[in-house]
């Protein structure tokens, strides 16, 4: 079978490792290039226990990324936003298609970058070109895209939780609140005391309250599906576990809309989605059923007690490294290459028990 | 020094154990009675490592509780709501004052009991008598109360997070959302597969969404401080850790109110509170700083980005077994006995690191 | 491709679930039967997120196991030892080959069963027939076996750690000590308070010291490879994590043997083993590199400081549910069917990060 | 009551924090000095939630330690060994008594320092003066000592597990094996990726196998109590939890000795020890019963099955920061000051549940 040459830049970070595992087992992919300074010269097999040809591939240093990437049809950038920002123009010019796992090309509004990413965008022109890689909501632009901005992990879970309700005009004009929590791998490899086991174990806390980097991204998505600005608050919390994101989203049904309609909207929106499952109750949405897979489980409950009339609560769970990063990137790759959307992803299984 | 005889009914549950530790070190308390079927006949010292006279006290069987309680000035009921319901009338008649850690006497409205507690209240007359034992908000009735309904753990954290804002009339008429998470000891001793290590470790999920038992209790408190019905949504989540509750509360400033006024309201409300500390930022509110103590940390952030104008987010953290149960019960005991409010509690230290 | 019908009896336990995942993705297997009372009538896909034909298979009740098993060429028994003991004779008579994941047929000596398993063996004749399914050490009898006794998880790790040293006659006549620790899934599904999250989290302890069920099994294996009785002590500990076993084994080089020879013995023994890797140092042997895979990593260190001349320490790590149960069972299935030994197993990846 | 001025150098490390909590509540101690660069200028109360005068004490910078220490009768050095090595001579000359929590003065043999501590001892003369601060075994020299070398955490647990058996001559001439595991706070504050939550959670591994720093210390203690060199192997493992050490020690009874004699030796040795408890079975020795306290639980089991005749297994558990560091230091302080040995320590309670 003909295989397409794919590369991963920044292959030793947690998302990069996840991408390596998934692509190594993808029947249409030949993993041609993996770059990493930390593991340069080492064999992928030695580091990740992967067998076969992929196992014999060796990590090239990061500064060779641009040069070696030209051998690939598509490269995954699992690099910090500043690095992606720098590398993308050259890659595109060289005819390489790019799936960027960082936030560097997710926002349409250049003004957001200084505020939330601490840099001024050096290629604002490319922002228009970039396709936001969330297939369940924005499928159309992905297949032909030369540059896909892979969504943030939190942003993915938040968007999937309520987008169908906004698209169907079922929520009122009030704000939507996303209370989210993530495992530690979402923060990447960390040598900080803050993220040490002694400081994280048995603890739980919110961080960057009302100033998290994913807020503009979520706002952009909600506005896109709702056709209007949707006020929103997003709060992130750190969980003492390694993988997984749970979002509990709060909205209110607009006058006349019912909970049944809301559930139906979710079910219809995801009826043909291979990766999103609507559960009967939010109590059934948890991390362990999705961690290790590219799946997202979603469920809605509505107020019946009268304590908050019209209130709907939607929970959504994903694996931050899979559907929140590498898995979604592969899903986008499949669409870009015209392959079956679930290739290399349907075989992923939950880590549990 | 004269010591007052205190008893703990149901002393082998997690709250009962916590109460035993605190009371054993309380200089004005003589722990006279501890009852438990599970540990009947055993010495407290053998079970909990407590030295001295208290260590030599032996657990009496539960069915002896009512009889032996008469030797006490005050008894703590660390029993299920149905048991408390049954025991309280007799204890009061015998002249024993009661601090009930269950929900049996927390709600004013008898109609709520069948809906949320699955029983019809057999002593509705006592509901009026019971003082809701949250000193920071409802101090007045506690000193003379014969029956104190110790608040629920979640309800305590939720109330402390926003009550001052409601009292000061700073929030609009919209609903307040409480997104909370608790460690497993909040569920009590469990021999269910659901709460087994293999099922809880590395997982996170919401439960009893829009139908949690603490909702009417929180509603009652908010109405009391706001002087009006406050629509609310409360969501509980299970954390893979043993102790601690974090609540992230969402409200909106009424027109004209400012974030500075909101912060000031919190600071003023708790200025003379020995146990509640207002932190500068919600990022500083976490479980590890409070677990092991009777403290509650609270902090407020307000939207400045424009994504949700008027939004305020308040985080609050407590130890579910201390300020959420046994510690607050001892705080109430101190008030009931006319002792210094912090006796036996100011020496508690955080478990961390 | 022709697929062979395989069945799993007791498919809802942790080992059964693991076997289901592995067999569902095995290219030569048609998972024909899964039995479970807990999940009877439900679809495998609904429970485990498995797609395709296997996902549509429904769990039959346990009491139908024997009857339905006749449709299978081989069945996996993921049942308690007493159940396996009862089912095996009938299955063999019906011409079905059996891989028993319980301890019911592991021990040659019938006298050990009352002592360690609390039952008298009802089919002692079958003990002779059963092949002990540890391919790396006892490959010969497995391909033609009608009944394979799948080794215990602890026993597998202990055996792999030192067997090559014993076979090569490199250890002295003294006892070998195995200090082992396992995650909680090794105890199976538990609804006991003892195994509740609140009781296991942040704790560590030894259990069944000097009376663990796996001791006779390990003794049997050591005697087999050493050609003599090997005195041994085995200690199990419970780790506050879900999957994985680490064994730290202690032996002493016989006079004249060297650490280099010992390392060489391990490397040679496992040179052609697809699943056992010899690491350079015991510090490199950990759970996270093997959990999720059928691999075992092993490493040896020898005393050079003089504090314990001749001492060798060997560490070995496996996933208790994979190489310690279901994965090894599939490895045995491959040998029994004359298939490539790594089929369905080489694609397993480590769960980490 | 007259209080004695005590100081803690390096008060912001985990041991330093633990010492601060204990000394703050010690009725005969006035905590006069706490030094830390990280927290310099901040109030102890703000950092650790301690009330009263101690809470108002501010952290002085580390380079002021020597100067300010002169105001103290005794100082605790919770500093790295190299720092202690440097500070101790000057402190002693100034008439300040010192309890050093590092390993700088634990070993009698100067030759061990380059090998295990990577430095040449600059004050070998002081090694003779230093009293090894393990009261249960070496009480005599502590009360009059000017310099107490506080034992290592692992070394404390190992020593307590078997010393009485060696003293009573009950073990044979063979080696004693200590297989130990510790929570992460034993490694101190760490900003290394190695000790990050993502790398430690759900993992378990041995480290520095056959080359751990505590080996010579344990060897010195065993030789001291046995009156002969005792061959030993010590292995450390990292547990995914914050506090606690469990040691599983393996020895063999000498010919003629019985398990009953061994148990009696342990019981007699610790009969009057306020902190060491002998449990009936090793299964009852766990971290959660001792963490948070200065206690050590110990239990012995002996082979009765015949798999390893004469084998005895002793388990011992301590809190690495309390009995393994700060608590033992306070115990030594009490002895040095002629105070009741349990002052400030008997009130410590287990963190559990």
Class inferred from helices and paired strands of chain A: alpha/beta
**Helix coverage percent of residues of chain A?**
25-40%
- How many individual β-strands of chain A? 13
Averaging pLDDT over every residue of chain A, what do you get?
A: 96
Write down the Rg of chain A: 20 Å
**Overall spatial form of chain A:** globular
**Sequence of secondary-structure elements of chain A:** EHEHHHEHEHHEHEHEHEHEEHEEEH
Uncertain residue segments of chain A: none
Q: Beta-strand percentage of chain A?
A: 15-25%
Terminus-to-terminus distance of chain A: 35 Å
Largest interface: C-D, 59 and 59 residues
Q: Give the assembly state of these chains.
A: homotetramer
Number of helices of chain A: 13
**Biggest sheet statistics of chain A:** 7 strands, mixed
- The largest beta-sheet of chain A arranges its strands as 8-9-7-10-13-12-11
């Amino acid at each position: 079978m003909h295989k397409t040459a794919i590369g991963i830049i920044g292959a030793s970070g947690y998302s990069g490792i996840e991408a390596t595992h998934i692509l190594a087992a993808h029947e249409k992919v030949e993993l041609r290039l993996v770059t990493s300074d930390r593991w340069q010269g080492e064999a992928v097999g030695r580091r990740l226990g992967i067998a076969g040809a992929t196992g014999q591939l060796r990590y090239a240093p990061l500064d060779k990324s641009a040069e070696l990437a030209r051998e690939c049809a598509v490269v995954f950038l699992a690099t910090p936003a500043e690095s992606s920002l720098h590398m993308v123009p050259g890659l595109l010019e060289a005819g390489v298609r790019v799936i960027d796992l960082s936030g560097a090309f997710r926002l349409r509004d250049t003004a957001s970058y200084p505020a939330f990413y601490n840099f001024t965008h050096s290629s604002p022109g490319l922002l228009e070109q970039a396709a936001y890689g969330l297939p369940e909501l924005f499928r159309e632009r992905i297949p032909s895209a030369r540059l896909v901005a892979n969504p943030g992990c939190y942003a993915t879970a938040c968007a999937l939780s309520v987008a169908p309700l906004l698209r169907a005009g079922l929520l009122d004009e009030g704000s939507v609140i996303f209370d989210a929590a993530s495992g530690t791998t979402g923060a990447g490899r960390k040598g900080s005391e803050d993220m040490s086991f002694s400081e994280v174990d048995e603890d739980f806390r919110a961080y960057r309250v009302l100033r998290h980097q994913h807020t503009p991204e979520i706002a952009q998505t909600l506005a896109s599906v709702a056709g209007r600005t949707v006020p929103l608050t997003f709060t992130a919390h750190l969980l003492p576990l390694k993988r997984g994101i749970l979002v509990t989203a709060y909205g209110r049904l607009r006058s006349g809309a019912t909970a049944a309609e809301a559930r139906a909207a979710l079910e219809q929106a995801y009826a043909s989605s291979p990766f999103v499952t609507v559960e009967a109750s939010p109590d059934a949405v948890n991390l362990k059923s999705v961690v290790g897979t590219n799946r997202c489980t979603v469920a809605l409950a509505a107020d019946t007690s009268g304590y908050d009339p019209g209130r709907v609560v939607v929970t959504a769970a994903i694996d931050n490294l899979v559907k929140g990063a590498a898995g979604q990137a592969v899903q986008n790759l499949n669409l870009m290459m015209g392959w079956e959307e679930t290739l290399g992803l349907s075989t992923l299984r939950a880590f549990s028990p």
